Amino acid sequence: MSSQDKTKICVIGAGAIGGYLGVRLANSGALVSVLARGQTLQSIKERGWILEDGQQRMVAKVNAASDAAELGPQDIVIISVKAHALADIAAMVPALCHAQTMIIPAVNGIPWWFTQGLDNADLPGQLDALDPQGLIAHAVDTQRIIGCVVYPSCYSPEPGVSHHSSGNRLVFGEISRHAQAADPARVDHVVSLFSAAGLAAEKTPDIRTAVWEKLLGNACFNPVSMLTGSSTDLMIDDADINRLFVALMTEVIAVGAAMNIRVSVTPQQRLAVTRKLGGVKTSMLQDAEAGRPVEIDAILGAFVELAAGLGIATPTADTIYALARMRARTFGLLKH
Can you tell me the distance from the alpha carbon of 61 to that of 90, in angstroms, rounded to the nearest whole number? Predict the structure, then answer.
């Protein structure tokens, strides 16, 4: 395959997930570039982009830059930064796009695009918890977006290096609920591309349900782990926390149902799935321990905002969100 035939992919954000996806895609034959900065940018330029995956150490030579204009238009743009950094990088996106460019936000929690295009007058078109000034929505053309739910667990032990701990499932789908709104082959192409990179990529006709099913666990495990400093197994095995999780998941299910989203598992089933993974330290707890900003607004703040818009009481979520956000503010973990 010549370089002209390869899919051009730019990854914005060379952190844990960005590295996992970028290195695998590059090693499968895609023409990958990355937007990074500081020590991460320097490391990738000097040593290549490194992925530690089990006993395997993969290195990809990619075009790394700090300026989107230097890379030019791409076929696919993967956004893999933390939710609170989206507004900072949104302005880079247009320079990376040609007429057919697809944008894949590989982000955690509820994405900023979630309510766009939904036929519900009670829901805001723009979520203040995620995009209060509309900067992201203005810079990223909604019609370009392919929704994505990311399940792999990864961390970055040092700049330019990603370590894959577990999971390789990715779910992709069009964010429009109208079948005629986009080329049906777009998602098929994306699934094929990621599958060729050794990832368990799948297509869904309802990406919002996929987002909600992951949120069912994330809304519980992430903020409560930050409050308690506990791994998932300890929290699930504690009878009081277990009841708290069931109450919160019940609220998540109720709010989803009001948006015609019906998850396929019960709270007890969801807890059982996570318990089988053993002692997992959530991404929010890892960020808190490292003194990095946490994604509390994307994971729980946006949910509370949606519930309020729909007029649904969520006392458990409200309480956990208030406590987690105060802890984050107290320890300087909120990005202003």
Answer: 25
Q: How far apart are CA 236 and CA 244, in angstroms?
A: 10
Q: Quote helix, strand, coil % in the chain, to nearest 5.
A: 45, 20, 35
Tell whether 305 and 258 lie within a shared domain. yes
Instruction: Tell me which of 203, 214, 276, 281 is the catalytic residue.
Output: 214
- pLDDT digits over 72-98, tens only? 999 999 999 999 999 999 999 999 999
Chain segment 262-284, per-residue pLDDT in tens = 999 999 999 999 999 999 999 99
Non-local (6+) Cβ contacts of 74 within 8 A are 8, 9, 10, 33, 96, 97, 98, 101
- Quickly count helices (H) and strands (E) in the chain: 14, 12
Q: Are residues 252 and 185 located together in one domain of the fold?
A: no
Number of domains in the chain: 2
pTM of the predicted model as reported, rounded to 2 decimal places: 0.95
Please list, residue by residue across 261-289, b when 16 or more beta carbons sit within 10 angstroms of its beta carbon and e when fewer do. bebeeebeebbeebeeeeebbbbbbbbbe
Tokens representing 310 are 């729909």
**Residue 188 domain flag:** yes
Q: Is 214 among the residues known to form the active site?
A: yes
Contact status, residue 153 vs residue 280, Cβ threshold 8 Å: yes
Question: Which amino acid type is present at position 42?
Answer: Q
Nearest to 169 by CA among 139, 189, 195: 195
Q: Tell me which H or E stretch contains 318.
A: helix 315-330
Q: Is residue 1 in some structural domain?
A: no
Q: What is the mean pLDDT of residues 21-50?
A: 98
Decide if 336 is inside a domain: no
Contact 81, 13 (CB under 8 A): yes
**Phi, psi values for residue 46, rounded to 5°:** -85, -40
As a whole number, the mean pLDDT across the chain is 94
